[in-house]
């Protein structure tokens, strides 16, 4: 017996499995046997064929979720194999070194080993330079920006993270002791999420937020831990905000009560006086005031994870100095701040109440 | 009709249920599902979409092994318990029994059970 609906389901599953044709056929064969026997039982119970087929398929659930479960098993198998190979390679290298030490009693000064050492030196010089921690983090950030279909149905947190890790070629380290401390058992906390074409980082943030967790980047690794601990691993970054902070046209600098202009923006008034077009003068250049800085800080602390700032009992800190904003926050919060600053422009970023009204350019 | 156990309640013990069914001899997926349903008086439902990945995982962990045959004209995959699976089942059975007793002592007074206090 071969029902068209069963074949369609199994074909779709096979397409999603990304396994070898042989493995796919074995899984399909096993599931088809179950479907057909279930169909027989339902027909024997007096259910119509159409309903019985529907029910037999429904009991298998969403085909994408089933494929993900099988893929995860295959991935675990692959990982175990890689770990075994790595362990075997290390043992092999150690044996070779031991053998070399036994059969070459002269040690490293012997000609054999020396030439070997030279060859190794040459190899080393041709190896690409070691990546810095920041370069590794930048690569990981780029991967976290990739989109995918986040479809998880009642999947445990650990498996969910492994699926994401696998899909985006990430290295996710789960801080198990810390998660246990906050009562999150990664194998019994379950995730259900259906967000097609979502950025990886957003899906991760949504999933982790449900369990009071966060991630931060360290040396290219995505480290999943509690929000509290993630905050203690916060990074200090400096944002050059002169453009955003400079909220009033240079022509207004002479007005009292506008605050002092920093050295960095000292050149701005001069260029403003030279400006011919009123439109250009209305747009640039600007000077900043301390009131503008307060407003910008307020915008950031009100919109980016408000509970995480020290004024609200969190650990994040923010201060302005000489046209720059100094922020200590998690990587996720930094990403939001960066996005916010990139999208703020002097024309509408700061409320008019905080600075003098722009002057007419030509006066 | 008796109410089914909640999914959260049975989640951690599904592998134990499958292993215990296989302790009685070779079974295939559908028969395992039926036996669990029958043994629980219809209170445990193990959906096919959960059962097969679980069977494959137990096989990966070498707790069960499989073989194919064409008995009765139908190609079918059968599962058996391995020695490792038997050991695991015995360990887990002891642990669960002890856990159930502990929980029973804790919950007995909540339900006003005289026997729990005695």
Comma- or semicolon-separated keywords:
heterodimer; A: 363 residues; alpha+beta; 3-stranded antiparallel sheet; 55% helix; B: 118 residues; 3 strands; 59% helix
Describe the secondary-structure layout:
The complex is a heterodimer of chains A (363) and B (118).
Chain A (H helix, E strand, L loop, with lengths): L3 H14 L3 H24 L4 H10 L4 H41 L7 H16 L6 H12 L2 E10 H11 L4 E3 L1 H6 L8 E10 H10 L3 E6 L2 E6 H6 L2 E6 L1 H4 E4 L17 H8 L3 H6 L2 E3 L1 H14 L13 E5 L2 E6 L1 H13 L2 H4 L14
Parallel strand pairs in A: 2-5
Antiparallel strand pairs in A: 1-3, 4-5, 6-10, 7-8, 9-10
Helix pairs in contact in A: 1-2, 1-4, 2-3, 4-7
Chain B lengths: L6 H4 L3 H9 L4 E2 H11 L8 H13 L3 E6 L6 E6 L1 H29 L2 H4 L1
Antiparallel strand pairs in B: 1-3, 2-3
Helix pairs in contact in B: 2-3
Overview of this protein structure:
The complex is a heterodimer of chains A (363) and B (118). Chain A contains 16 helices and 10 strands. In chain A, the strands form 4 sheets. In chain A, strands 2-5-4 form a 3-stranded mixed sheet. Chain A starts with a helix and ends in a 14-residue tail after the last helix. Chain A is 55% helix and 16% strand. By secondary structure, chain B is mainly α. Chain B has a single domain (7-108), classed as Arc Repressor Mutant, subunit A (Orthogonal Bundle), CATH 1.10.10. Chain B has 6 helices and 3 strands, in the order ααβααββαα. In chain B, strand 2 and strand 3 (76-81) form a beta hairpin. Chains A and B meet through helix 2 and helix 4 of A and helix 3 and helix 4 of B.
């Amino acid at each position: 017996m071969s029902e068209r609906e069963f074949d369609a389901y199994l074909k779709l599953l096979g397409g999603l499995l990304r396994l070898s044709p042989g493995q796919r056929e074995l899984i399909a064969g096993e599931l088809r046997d179950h479907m057909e026997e279930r169909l027989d039982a339902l027909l024997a119970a007096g259910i119509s064929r159409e309903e019985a087929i529907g029910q037999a398929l429904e009991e298998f659930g969403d085909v994408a979720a089933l494929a993900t479960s099988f893929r995860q098993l295959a991935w675990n198998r692959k990982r175990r194999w890689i770990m075994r190979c790595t362990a075997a390679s290390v043992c092999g290298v150690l044996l070779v070194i031991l053998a070399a030490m036994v059969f070459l009693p002269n040690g490293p000064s012997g000609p054999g080993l020396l030439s070997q050492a030279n060859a190794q030196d040459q190899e080393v010089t041709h190896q690409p330079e070691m990546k810095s921690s920041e370069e590794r983090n930048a690569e990981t950030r780029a991967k976290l920006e990739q989109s995918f279909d986040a479809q998880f149905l009642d999947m445990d947190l650990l498996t969910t993270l492994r699926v994401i890790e696998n899909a985006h070629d990430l290295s996710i380290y789960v801080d198990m002791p810390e998660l246990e401390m906050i009562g999150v058992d990664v194998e019994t906390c379950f995730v259900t999420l259906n967000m097609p074409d979502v950025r990886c980082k957003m899906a991760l943030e949504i999933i982790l937020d449900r369990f009071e967790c966060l991630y931060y980047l360290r040396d290219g690794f995505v480290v999943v831990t509690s929000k509290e601990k993630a905050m203690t691993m916060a990074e200090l970054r400096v944002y050059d905000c002169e453009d955003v902070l400079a909220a009033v046209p240079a022509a207004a600098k002479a007005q009292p009560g506008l605050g002092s202009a920093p050295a960095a923006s000292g050149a701005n008034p001069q260029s403003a006086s030279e400006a011919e077009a009123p439109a250009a003068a209305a747009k640039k250049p600007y000077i900043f005031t301390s009131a503008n800085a307060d407003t910008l800080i307020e915008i950031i602390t009100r919109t980016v994870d408000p509970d995480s700032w020290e004024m609200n009992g969190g650990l994040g800190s923010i201060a302005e100095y000489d046209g720059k904003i100094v922020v200590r926050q998690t990587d996720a919060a930094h990403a939001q701040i960066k996005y916010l600053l990139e999208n703020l422009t002097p024309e509408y970023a700061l409320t008019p109440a905080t600075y003098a009204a722009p002057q007419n350019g030509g006066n | 009709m008796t109410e089914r156990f909640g999914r959260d309640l049975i989640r951690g013990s599904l592998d134990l249920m499958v292993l215990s069914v296989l302790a009685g001899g070779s079974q295939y997926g559908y028969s395992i599902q039926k036996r669990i349903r029958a043994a629980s008086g219809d209170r445990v439902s193990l959906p096919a979409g959960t059962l097969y990945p679980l069977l494959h995982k137990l096989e990966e962990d070498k707790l069960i092994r499989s073989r194919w045959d064409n008995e009765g004209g139908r190609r079918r995959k059968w599962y058996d318990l391995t020695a490792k699976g038997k050991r695991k089942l015995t360990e887990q059975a002891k642990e669960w029994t002890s856990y159930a007793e502990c929980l029973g002592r804790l919950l007995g007074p909540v339900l006003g059970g005289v026997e729990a206090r005695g």
